[in-house]
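W.,

You were right to be curious about this one. When I first looked at the sequence I had no strong expectations either way, so I just let the prediction run and decided to look at it fresh. Below is the sequence, 495 residues in total, followed by the output.
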Amino acid sequence: MKRSLLLITIGWLLAVTATAAPPFYSHYWVEGSVSEEGVPSARRQVEVYKTPDNKITGLTDASGRYQINLYDLEYFRGVPVTYESESYTVVVPATEGGLGGSESVLLRSVRGFVTTIFSFFRPGSGDVTPPRVTAFEPHGSNVSPSEVIRITFSELMSQEVTEKAISLRPLTGVYYEWQHVGDGDRPYSELYLLPVTSWQPGKSYLVTIGTGAADRAGNRMTEPETRSFTTLYGKGIDRVRPVIIATSPRDGDREVSLRTSVAILFSEAMSKEATVRAVSLPVKGAPWRANWIGSKLIFTPGQMLDLNALYEFTVSALACDLAGNRLAEDRHFTFRTLTAPPDVTPPTVISVSGGMNVALRPYIGIVFSEAMAPATINEVQLRLLDPGGNQVACDINYEAEINTAYLLPQADLLSYSGYTVVVRTGVTDLWENHLEREYRTTFVTADTAGPAIEKVKFDGRGYVENDVIASDALVSAEVTDSVGVNYNYLKLKLG
């Protein structure tokens, strides 16, 4: 117990109270492939980081593909972060006798996938050909006010530098979406500019692709390319049917990630409700979730897909644009998932929400490094212990899409007390890899009782009811605080 003498002049001493922010979690998937001289690079290390001292690594598989799950390492502080235009660097380190390189990727959604392709060529024997624009749409007049701009390049392009080299006049907000086609002898990239809002009616637009645009080998365009189009005037009637520009996965893709989303990119803005209803997806135990980015429709599975399974999704001709124009025909797409388990790495605990001054009825988030087997997320494997080491009864929830388990105590915790969160080794990921060692962390609840104020005196004299006190009297008091850290939370009101 700690005592202190408090001296103030008559007036107010206000408390500065603090409430714990709710936990905030999010993640991204970055995936892609690595090849050298056109040959897939197996077991090549791939590094992803936001700052150089905060790095996550992964290895490519036999087909040169990699997939890395990113987590923001600041969420345990409970501070929400803005994820618009969140930038990460993806690095393939050089090996002995091999080449390496890096690519900056821009993440625009709270949960989503970013794909990048690394193709390395040795100087003097590889790619020295400058890229060029091989196709551009739309063109001419009477363009739909929501049509997507599609630019096709002759080679695989470096995304960040190419986006910076493109200008649009008049200036209009757009989303950038890339489709890298790495198959065959002549890989190439397509860039789509999706308008955030509709193009202005009856307006001419000029798109310039400057010489800063570069391919993955660093070759830049030799001269700028300009293209133009004009939108429908006023209330002109849009009679152009929309088309599907691209899908991810592409039709016929193999070795697709078990966590893949299904993305469908249309040539223009679509009627959202009618288009979502027009898509038929494989039946899974949990429903797919739909999300729109411009004219790109993204479906995320409610649970991981099956291993070595053939999946089909269909977009019927009922999908229509904002003017009611429908697709010309039904479209069917198939893809096959991974044939072998990609994961032999034990899961880890990324973070547990907590710290000091935790609420007495906290919502405790436990974030894992990967998707976990829901059956192992239970009161036997996840425990909350009170200061005496006794287990506290908690409700337990698991959100598979963000790999996070939540503990919610069924009753208020004790004030200013230390509680321990225990994650036992019985928890497993979806490939039955166990946590290697038991994880423990402690947090301290808020001191809600606060300090006690006693023996209040004015100019050294005890206070008696109806006493008259001078306005400049010196107030003294004894403050008793068992914690000894809460003087700033004191409030003494004098009238």
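Here's what jumped out at me. Confidence is low (pLDDT under 50) at residues 1-27, 72-83, 484-489. And, maybe more interesting for your project: The longest helix spans residues 159-164.

Coffee later to discuss?

I.
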